[in-house]
Amino acid sequence: MKVKTILVSQPEPKVENSPYFDLQSNQKVKIDFRPFIHVENVSTKEIRLQKVEFTKYSAIILTSRNAVDHFFRVAESMRFKVPDTMKYFCQSEAVAYYLQKYVVYRKRKIYVGKRTFTELLNVISKYKNENFLLPSSDKLKSSVPKALDELGVNCKQAVFYKTVISDLSDLADVYYDILVFFSPSGIDSLFHNFPDFKQKSTRIAVFGNSTTKAVESKGLRVDISAPSKENPSMTMALEKYIKKMNKK
Question: In the CATH hierarchy, which top-level class contains the domain 5-36+169-246?
Fold first, then answer.
């Protein structure tokens, strides 16, 4: 079946040169964006109950842009002036560059992994004497604090924000040829909103092994997947699939 419509379960990109816009234009398909999950603040009171004392930490582990935003939000709400000596360990270059929203990048000690948390661990392992704070969501993979513990670093994990299922009731009667998911939480949202969802001819695109497992655990079929050697990005995987299907 040909592909005409795609729903991406994330917010619409804010940059004009997003590859999704190129995909839409070049392949003549309609792409809509709708976050299936959203982030909500954890209050200062709740964070205090987790016994987070900012003055104890010399380094921050940042796994996402959300973690960056909420670290600085909480620091401000708790009237903590982040010292210039603070070290930042960022999971990817995208997260590191996002830090520029809050700090003068060239004047800070910023250490960057390549893409995965395992790659960041290799960097962290060289700084075992630091006291680390890991601000995270309530959906943080258990493997992350476990890996830090096994590495033998002094690290405090604290929930600074929550991942919440979005209301998608207005999409009840809307059909898309492809649904694109990036996390198991997106699949949870799909079935929370539409418990009787049947895949039928809808194609499902997934990013990452954990998302693939979440899809398959619901008895659904994965039609498009990334990343891979051939398709390192979701847009590349979608483009290849669309070209193949729309040829027929």
Answer: alpha beta
State how far the Cα of 229 lies from the Cα of 248, in Å rounded to an integer. 26
List CB contacts of 166: < 8 A, sequence separation 6 or more: 34, 35, 36, 37, 38, 189, 193
Q: Which amino acid is at 93?
A: E
pLDDT in tens, 6-60: 999 999 998 888 999 999 999 999 999 999 999 999 999 999 999 999 999 999 9
Out of 3.40.50.10090, 3.40.980.10, 2.30.29.30, 3.30.70.60, select the CATH number for domain 40-163.
Answer: 3.40.50.10090
Phi (first) and psi of residue 174, to 5 degrees: -105, 135
Q: Are the beta carbons of 151 and 175 closer than 8 angstroms?
A: no
If phi > 0 it is left, if psi is from -120 to 50 it is alpha, else beta; for residue 100 that is alpha
Model confidence, pTM = 0.79
d(CA 96, CA 67): 11
Instruction: Return the pLDDT at 248.
Output: 62
- Kindly give the parts of the chain with pLDDT less than 70: 248
**Which amino acid is residue 104, in one-letter code?**
V
In the chain, where the domains are located? 5-36+169-246, 40-163
Q: Of 86, 78, 68, 76, whose CA–CA distance to 46 is shortest? A: 78
* Cβ–Cβ < 8 Å for 174, 194: no
